[in-house]
Design goal:
400 residues; alpha+beta
Amino acid sequence: MAAAVKTRSCGACSLIFLFSVFNLCQSLLSGGQTFHRKLSVELNPGSSSPPPGGDLLHVRAVGDNDTLHFLFCSQGAPTLLLVHTDTSSSAVTVNWTQFIDRSHSGGLQVEPETSILYSTALVFSRLLEYDDVNDTADPTSDLFPPYELQDFSWSGFNLSGQTALLCGSAATFANGSLCLQLSVFEVEGRGQSWPRLLHTANSSQLRVWLDGVLPRASHSRFLLELQAVGGGAYPLSKVEVHRSIDDEFTPSIFKVSRWVPSMNGSSDVPVFVQWKPVAYRRSEPALEDATPCRHSEPRPLSGEEAASVLVRAFYAEPETFGLNVSFGLAGEPFYNSTKFLSWTLLVGSGSPPVDSFSPLVLSMMAVGLGTPMILLLLGGVCVCARKRTAATATAYEPIN
């Protein structure tokens, strides 16, 4: 009788363990609840007609007790401005006369001004090209005159759901174009195309691509100059490179680059720009179309005014840091091979999203680790039961 009870007890332990592993896998696969923001999109807020010189897109992302304002502008160099406020009722106002005038700040305001926690603007200022005739991927020499993006002819915004597409060209581009696509999000998720960046409701994604542009040399490579502008608090002044053991979503890439403020040793940051150091040579890439990219160290641009109408309208005394992102390494195919190049980055509030193993991989790991333990447990149950049975059998003498 005691042996039967012991056997049932061990069997119950096995069932409990199996049930625990099943619940773990189920919870990992379900993903749980995620933070949600309510989005509203407005083109040229407060203007009854399209303003001259380009469009201004305003995306308002409202949380429980705060608001993120994403402002994307094509007047001057393309610029994305992110403003975080501590109230769900903050609003953007535009004085279009001052905004178009471009001569002083105050054309764009977020009210109430006292609700602003921080802000930053990312300016796409210049496209640079160089002749890499020796295949060294060294952009310090043989640079052609830069393409100033503030001088491009930009299209109007093409809006579709939660994305906005902006394309432009220089006079020497022929039929080619430089395009930027902004995407905003209500909840956490992941991009559908490589590099499949993880995003949250506190971030936006910008995909930049160069398509069909006539190169100025047979060994052309490109760089993109970016400027991060702030009002004196939390300037984006350093780039951190973080490594990972997982390339599940971006094959062969085990790093992520984060352009963040210097926070005196604190790991928490209020704002970030993040990217994987990879670009792609085709619009629908395969693994062989990936090409590495590198960044220069951010440097302060004191005395250099950003070529952005949005920056001039919002900031009275901006503080600016700039860096270059170069595409391709020595031995990699040149731009001429496909005449296409795309790169994707995130701009967001708070700590950057961190890649981790997917629920499927985690559940497989849980099952893989749990199966040997279950087998050992079941083996122990069998041995325990056999010994108890044998001990019970020897404890009684046969009755003649």
